[in-house]
Batch of 3 targets.
Target 1
Amino acid sequence: MAIKKSELYSSLWKSCDQLRAAGGMDASQYKDYVLIVLFVKYVTDKSKFDSNSLVIVPQGGSFDDMIKVKGKKNIGEEMNKIINKLAQANDLKGVIDVIDFNDEAKLGKPVEMINLLSGLIETFQNKSLDFGNNQAGGDDLLGDAYEYLMKNFATESGKSKGQFYTPAEVSRIMAKVIGIKDAKSQEQTIYDPTCGSGSLLLKAADEANVKVSIYGQEKDQATASLAKMNMILHNNETAIIWQGNTLSSPNSEWIENDGSLKRFDFVVANPPFSNKEWLIGVDAINDKWKRFDGFGIPPLKNGDYAFLLHLIKSMKSTAKGAIILPHGVLFRGNAEAEIRANIIKRGYIKGIIGLPANLFYGTGIPACIIVLDKENAQSRKGIFMIDANKGFVKDGNKNRLRSQDIQKIVDTFTNQLEIEKFSRLVRLEEIEKNEYNLNIPRYIDTQEPEDLQNIEAHLKGGIPVEDIEDLSKYWDVYPTLRKQLFTDGISKGFLKVNIPHDEIKRTIFSNTEFITFSDNVKKTFANWKHKHEAYLKSLDIKVHPKKLIQELSESILAQFSNIKLIDKYDIHQHLMDYWQEVMQDDVYVITQDGWKLNITLDKKNEWYCDLLPKELVINKYFNTEKTAIEDLEESKDEITRQLDEMREENSGEGQVFFEVEKVSKKAMKEIKQQEWDEEDKIIIINYEKLLLLEGGFAKRIRVAKSDLDKTLLNKLKSLSVDEIKTLIVDNKWMKTLESSVNSEMDRISQKLMQRIKELVERYAEDLPSIEKEVEMLSAKADQHWIKMGFKI
């Protein structure tokens, strides 16, 4: 039986928790133990499946050999030997053998170490964790597992050690905006001069339709080793990862015959922000690679532009690229202002994407993606800017880009769409007038207009026309609704409401155009559903889940692209959320076991089905039985309510239930033994009758639920494959997604209704009416004073 991806990754992370609990290590250290065992497991599985694998797994150097040493007294020493043999056979010395599995300071004393390492090996023994047929970048179980672990490691490593990982969401944007998808040949190259663990480099390379050649350099030895392992884990054994300082010592093998830096077709980078030590080992004035010639030398204590200029110098004349830098590079003055102007004048910057703050693990400051393009530099007339700082969701103590945020950014940039308060093409003449300052707020105003109160409306009455016209997107869809709700007021430029306040909701929801639009939204989803039902029911072990969800998401975006009021990216997000929460696991199970239902007992000896929740099948086949149980529960609840009421009414001092917190059998026995008057005895008798009735209903409910559970289990076992497909695709997946789409319609309707009610209430009373009421109340008060004998 296949284990769900989410459960599998949770088990992997659990093993990490065990290592952490052992003491002596933080996330930046214990990740190395987990990832090295993951590496050994992968290459072992792959060698069994792929005879052309470039990684040699020698005798005594496999994961199978690790299994043999489980529980042994010298397990740490033996694991070191196994890893050393694998390293020697593959020129991986100093890469996978840098961690000591026999380190008592980190792994504990012998008994603790034995249990810990045996448990780690056992985690990767999971039968569902088979990397033999891994398709990196496709349905790659390994890639997803690695991504899951790296994200968690980065989250827990803290500010100083989390920079080895670029968030996958940001990597995805960069991979798409550099246009590497159009790569035509394996001879084409991609380069990352500060590659960290290699996650950004791999995401970008994976976007290409051909297998491009990968180059990366990383200063930190341990992180460079991580990147080398990562390349092999993702089926890129030929990737070249060089350890060293990019700015002071670019890989000597990449230096051309004329002494210049090697040039690449595509480049990406996420360098350390505002590096104060970038000049160590660098002769900036006489830079032998001429990276600063014609641009200027970056500030002594800030290396942002040093990395950017290195990247530009590493680009071929037709190259494309992207780099992540702090927002300060867009507007800081002095030396950086000169460099920025020189880069802009050469036309190298194609676009700038402003990102939300607190996305990255090493820092909380906001950053931007600078998109580079040398090929079209000479003809560049402007820079395309996107301000995406508001599109994110909170994720623990960090912010995270949602799928809809990524999709909107990529679509907008790729198609150069100008969207109010989000994106625009800024002409170079405008940038020049601003002295080459690229601060995005100078060019894109994202401020929402303030909801101003209209003094004249408060004085004279009526709702300002401009407030109603601000809702024009609704009136474009429901033109008659505006006429139903409003007519001209007493004063020009003001409207009055035609209907009572409490009739607004009914008027909106009963409007013919509102109903037609709602039906159209439902029809749009029904059409999308019809397009994909047969395909989804044909899924088998050959399906690639990542390709599947890409097709579905692109299709639903296209389906809702012309529906007014509905934001297609909100619909897209509903699909992606459901994919992450439920559908991905379901599809993964189907790729392993087909459309077979796996029924399992939990720790409480209660059964559950991996693909079909009980409630779903009950609603489909046993609604009568469900209703009967609900009726019993309603009857029992009514009796419970009566019992609570009797207890509440008779809990005072000297009464039957005084100081009785819970009326148990024992409590009732003690109560009955006391002396009570006839009225109290009747209360006790009636209470006992109700208790008996409550117990009787409780028993009937238990029996009914038990009978239904048995009937349900038999039904599941008798379902045909076609019935299972219908239940999963139609009743589970599509019904859930349809409900999500309908919720968007409800949200839009509620937003309109609330705004109208707000305006109506705001201007419900004008000043003359209030003054008139005050005069009337004042006159009444005066009459009261006179009656009481006071002179006014």
Target 2
Amino acid sequence: MSQQNQVIFNGRYELHRRLGRGGMAEVYLARDQLLDRPVAVKVLFPALATDQGFVERFRREAQAAANLQHPNIVSVFDWGEANGTYFIVMEYVEGMTLAELLRDEGRLHPDRAAEITADIAAALGFAHRNRVVHRDVKPGNVLITRDGGVKVADFGIARALSDSSDMNLTKTGSVMGTATYFSPEQARGAPVDPRSDIYSLGCVLYEMTTGHPPFAGDSAVAIAYKHVQENPMPPRRFDPALPETLEAITLKCLAKNPANRYPSAQDLRADIRRFLDGSRIMAEPVLAPPVDPGATNVLARTQYGEQTAAIAGPVGYAPQGYDDGYDDYDDYDDEDEPKRSKWFLAALILLLLVLAGLLFLLARNFSGGGDGVEQVTVPGVVGQDVNVATGALEAAGFEVKTEFANDPTAPPNQVTKQDPEAGVDADAGSTVTLTVSQGPEPVTVPDVVGMAQTEAQTVLTQAGFVVNVVPQENDDVPEDTVISQDPAANQQVPPQSTITIAVSSGSGKVAVPNVVGQTQGAAQAALSSAGFATVNVQQQSSGDVPNGTVISVDPPAGTQVPPNQAITLVVSSGQERVGVPNVEGLNEANARTQLEAAGLSVSVSQEDVSNPGQDGRVLRQSPSAGQQVDRGSTVNIVVARFSVTGGGGGGGGGGN
């Protein structure tokens, strides 16, 4: 965006550059000219701006979001209309989205994932108390600041979009793009409340700990179907090292029935804090969860029981008649919420029942009137994903029992064996047992802290691990010694896992090279090669060291110092030159004093004179006054000596 074509909204918000593009708007970095601060401006696509119903809903929700002032919520400052569309002005957060973090770094450490979840739950809890449901909790709407803080964005925007009459699962757009994190009630088109946000947050927590969301599919409709009909694979099936307590919290958030989820975001955050503190959590597996009338009647089997993946609190956690406090959320549903969804669902169920009856009658005719037990050929499902295999067997009329076992030759969740085998005729309704791979047997991580780098790499490689070496400066640990490792020693991890070892690169200090006696240029080059960027030079005269030669270095040669420390070179400027003082006319003693004070030596010779007034005075000097000579040079002075000539000289001398 050139300076000449600079766009300014409402005479105040100066757009600079585009930060990103979503399903409903583009986001720009802008400057608030009034307050002189950076802001983020979200500009709606013009196609949305023509839908007056959506615009009105967007206005109401933007105003509601502007009232949410919380440390974990991106603040909304302003909204308005410009250039034929609408925009909102938000707090500018320096950092990246959680989606970008997961894309760049992969799954997170369980504790870090829990901390992020707790902060998101704090934001949601505050919004819910202010009667705002987010409806679009996903990694792309969570911002991670440069200092690791967490902020949730786009409160209320998803509600405006999803409630618009022409934006739904049957149309491409941002709703389609976020079906991955839909709650079952959202997928069915049923009314939602804050517990829908808890389900979506559970999807985000699942992705942070496993590296992928709980459900995937070829289309948004396929994913939404799985949210309603299928239960997620427990996270520890992908990584047995994940804490069981964090898995229980995740699955409780992902309960199909909202009544089996956490009653509020505050309760979820409290359980997360208990997990981080090592205290007993509220989420525990139960064998008989309440029946969810809105979800499928037969749930996929999990490790917690024959036919349940719903996680509730301890036994008696939500007794019959328990008031979860959500009756007050009825008015989250707009008065124009579609009423036909329940009728549509009822009609769909009735149609399926009729179809099932017809299929049953047809099957009886082919089996000779049903006098005996119907025989069905068992489908072959070995090599398939357990969810796909279960669906195929149940569609063929079989019950499915799942057993998990470690298998180094098959990836996790792949069916390795079935009983009865494929092609066998078995009674309709009988049970087919599937053996499902949990991946290879986990192995114990050796303790290599304190070892030399080469020894640690050998130990880890021989144990079947991939080694990632990260140098790290350390004043206390000797160079090439392992400081720490991740995962830690004695943890159980899959074979071929990557073990990162931090290896000491020493103190990071460099020995000062000995450059005394070298020329100034050679000394500076040697210091630069040793890594010292700053070299100061001081000139000093010397009668012994040639001009341009290094006399000394500070710090002295051999001293270990950081490479960013300045090094001072003392370089000879050669013999010092001094000016010869003018001593002609002075007596010998004064002349000698001045010359020696100037650093010069004195040589005296005498010359007879006939003028007694000149006796003892300097007649001449060499070198002459004002000449520049080396310090220590000799100056010759000629001193007058009065001499009496002729007779009577001896007596005259005695008289004077």
Target 3
Amino acid sequence: MTASPHRLVWLGSVGLLLVALAACGGGGGGVVEPPVASCVSTATIVCTQYGQLQGADEGGYRTFRGIPFAAPPLGDLRWRPPAKPASWQGVRNATAFGSPCPQIGVNGAPVGDEDCLTLNIYAVNPPASAKQPVIVFIHGGGASGGSALSPPWNAATPLAGHAIVVTVQYRLGLLGWLVNPLLTAESPQGSSGNYALMDQIAALQWVHDNIAQFGGDPARVMIVGHSWGSVMAESLLASPAAAGLFSAAAMESAVLRGGLIGTSIDNAYRWYADVPAAVGCGTAADVPACLRAVPAYTLVQSGPNSADTGWVNIDPVVLPEDPFLKLQRLGSPVPLIIGSNSDEAASNIAFAPPLDASGYAAAIHATFDPLESGAGDKVLAVYPATDYTNPNYALAAVYTDLDVALYTRNLARAASGAQRPRVWRYLYTHRYENDAVLNKARAFHGAELFFLFGSFQSVGISGPYTPSDAEIALSNDMMGYWVRLAATGDPNGAGATPWLTYDVASENILELDDNIVTLTGGYRNAQCDLLYSLPYTY
């Protein structure tokens, strides 16, 4: 997707946002093959379908890194559905991460390797006495960045003390999403694109088939996606190819709204029509072969026509229907947590040059007046600068709602309803208490992840962050809600503040802060109603 300048908020990874802050200061079911014959699992040696893995004991946790869940998508396997990984003899070392998928790093240099379809598993040591629920985390990064190597999900954390935690990598940028009629013509399923989504389905299939050997319960698998990973979770909820591979889901801080991706694969061709010529393959006799010979880093520096919307598209098998519209039509197939942070945009705007009232008004008019006559005045009327600490935070509130909160609300409304799996909505509002720079960013994009994983070592700006007692309690509460949803299909229990289900009539929202409370009647509905009425698109 193409981002306007302020839309760096939800498209970027948590790591990029923290750098910015520092600078400012297959299908379910099927036959499961038995593990390798004569293999006996121990705490850190585990038998999988493909061979034995040697993990590590890291402070009371078992860690297994760099596990291939698919064959490397190299050469002729580029822009094809993920193939099964090769088996191996002996014991494979699983103590080091696999490579990130090719992308442009924060310093503008290329990083990663196409041999990147790996996952990582974190579990308690010694193993739990009973099969544990499983949380599969899908990282963000705007479809073109991010990896399983970013904090806080790059290490065993307290979350892994309550559930098996799996982190997954998937193809990025054009390597993960290229749509082309010539690729469609050579595909048995009559489509192209969505390779990154297929990667995630392949990883979920691997988890389904192998996680029991690590102490996990394949019948209790919860997908958790953040930022672009939340868009991927939404797509998995709508994908018939992913049906049966997970039993619960959480979407954090991003939604793909309905009506963006057309109604057939044909609609996506124009998004990528300029790619072959841009990488020197426009006049090749065999365009797919030429494209497969282009260096990965040339491709990740290219992208769809900036005038159009790209990445996720409709295809006959993996995503035959717009995800938002399918969830609106049928509801979520599994119990769903969905939410966002109250200050998603603040990590950019709070640190920008200070605005006065006239500068704030000018920014609003510049964004909204081109959409509709008088739109800027309408927005200023429901977001007056005097309602906020300063005009910068007022502007951050507008962009937070415009890009994230509005569509989070809309999807929660669309998916919820009687006779459907239940939906629970949250609003994370907590501000870090013991770091002035983090506190200034308020409840920024990605702030909740360190609480969800129970790890704060990597969030500090001037050094490891020391959480207050109240923050540790909030972290424990959040882990409890998510793990209980994974374990039972209901986040409630264990004496926690009740989390009331969400529906259009009540609009119950759980506010996540030191004092967890229920917000009834919705959150900034008048503002979101106005923004939704405007002819605005990504």
